[in-house]
């Protein structure tokens, strides 16, 4: 509640159990052996908040990695953290892969997969697609971030699925590799062969987009051009169209920022507890989006409009905090431990 720790919440409530009691129950139930069942239950909770309109027709879908830094000293086999590119002063992270629907004002998390040290990218993507298939959810275009930029993923999407997909491609090399594609006066469409020492070569359609910063609008910095490369699987988008379509995927980053505001803090070495806190934060955002759509609509010609200011995320979090305080009674006074000395 309000991004506090278990200890902080228990200390602020008069009738709450001690933090040691709460952690004891959590550690007894949230075990590594029970992780698959816990993941299934959390995915069922996420699915329960998906608006019914989402299932009426195929929707654009984003798949991304959501990582939380880990600064502890637990070994990887026990802590279940994964290594990633250095960020926030560490290379160790607790990571979840999420599927997210890109559709108007009903953008919710559809499914989550906890990433373990033994998981590979193809297995993670396959698991998420199976969960979406079990929900009878249909994908229009799949947008993947740079974490899925690999030959096995491209080969999996081409040979084992019928999906059309757009994958953001990392620009590698100094003069060769994908950096050699970044030339010319404008965007263009080509084919490129990706080479992997372990998985061989794969040739795919590539959109090379030359984009410019927004400095013209802000006027703060000189206007600069930079390159973006997208791998296209069964897509006939033009370079300009694919860049515009991929921009809509960045709504998932806003979803993560909202989830960060609802997530409890912990220093627990229990990896399952950390995974559960990540999933619960995404669940609360799903609840907020569903309630906002239901109670913040403005009727108008051409479809309903959502009035965002009518129901902010902070209001939902305040309501939850007040409900907890009503049950356990907040601490409103302290007593002197000894006679005060003026």
Helix and strand layout, with pairings?
Layout: H1 6-12, H2 19-29, H3 35-48, E1 59-69, H4 76-79, E2 82-87, E3 90-102, E4 109-115, H5 121-134, E5 139-144, H6 151-159, E6 165-169, E7 188-196, E8 200-212, H7 215-218, E9 225-233, H8 239-247, H9 251-262, H10 271-295, E10 297-298, E11 305-306, H11 313-328
Parallel strand pairs: 1-5, 5-6
Antiparallel strand pairs: 1-3, 2-3, 3-4, 6-9, 7-8, 8-9, 10-11
Helix pairs in contact: 1-2, 3-10, 9-10
Question: Helices and strands, in N-to-C order?
Answer: HHHEHEEEHEHEEEHEHHHEEH
Mean pLDDT, to the nearest integer, reads 90
Q: What is the number of beta strands?
A: 11
Q: Please report which band the strand proportion falls in: under 5%, 5-15%, 15-25%, 25-35%, 35-45% or over 45%.
A: 15-25%
Oligomeric form: single chain
Structural class, from helix and strand content?
A: alpha+beta
**Percent range of helical residues:** 25-40%
Structure annotation, total helices = 11
């Amino acid at each position: 509640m309000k991004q506090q720790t278990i200890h902080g919440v228990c200390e602020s409530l008069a009738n709450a159990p001690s933090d040691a009691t709460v952690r004891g129950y959590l550690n007894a139930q949230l075990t590594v052996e029970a992780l698959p069942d816990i993941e299934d239950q959390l995915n069922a909770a996420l699915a329960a908040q998906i608006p019914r309109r989402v299932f009426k027709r195929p929707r654009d879908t984003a798949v991304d990695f959501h990582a939380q830094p880990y600064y502890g000293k637990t070994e990887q086999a026990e802590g279940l953290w994964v290594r990633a590119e250095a960020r926030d002063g560490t290379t160790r992270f607790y990571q979840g892969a999420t599927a997210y629907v890109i559709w108007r004002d009903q953008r919710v998390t559809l499914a989550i997969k906890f990433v373990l040290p033994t998981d590979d990218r193809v297995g993670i993507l396959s698991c998420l697609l199976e969960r979406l298939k079990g929900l009878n959810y249909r994908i229009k275009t799949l947008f993947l971030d740079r974490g899925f930029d690999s030959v096995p993923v491209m080969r999996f999407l081409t040979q084992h699925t019928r999906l059309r997909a757009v994958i953001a491609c990392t620009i590698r090399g100094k003069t060769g590799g994908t950096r050699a594609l970044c030339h010319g006066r404008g965007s263009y469409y080509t084919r490129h062969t990706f080479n992997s020492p372990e998985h061989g070569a794969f040739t795919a359609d590539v959109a090379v987009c030359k984009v410019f910063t927004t400095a013209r609008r802000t006027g703060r910095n000189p206007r600069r051009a930079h390159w973006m490369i997208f791998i296209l699987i069964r897509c006939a988008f033009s370079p300009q169209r694919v860049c515009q379509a991929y921009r809509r995927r960045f709504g998932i980053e806003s979803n993560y920022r909202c989830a960060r505001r609802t997530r409890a803090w912990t220093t627990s070495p229990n990896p399952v507890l950390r995974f559960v806190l990540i999933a619960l934060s995404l669940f609360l955002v799903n609840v907020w989006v569903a309630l906002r759509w239901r109670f913040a609509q403005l009727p108008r010609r051409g479809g309903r409009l959502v009035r965002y200011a009518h129901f902010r995320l902070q209001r939902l979090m305040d309501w939850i905090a007040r409900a907890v305080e009503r049950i356990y009674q907040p601490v409103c006074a302290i007593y002197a431990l000894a006679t005060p000395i003026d």
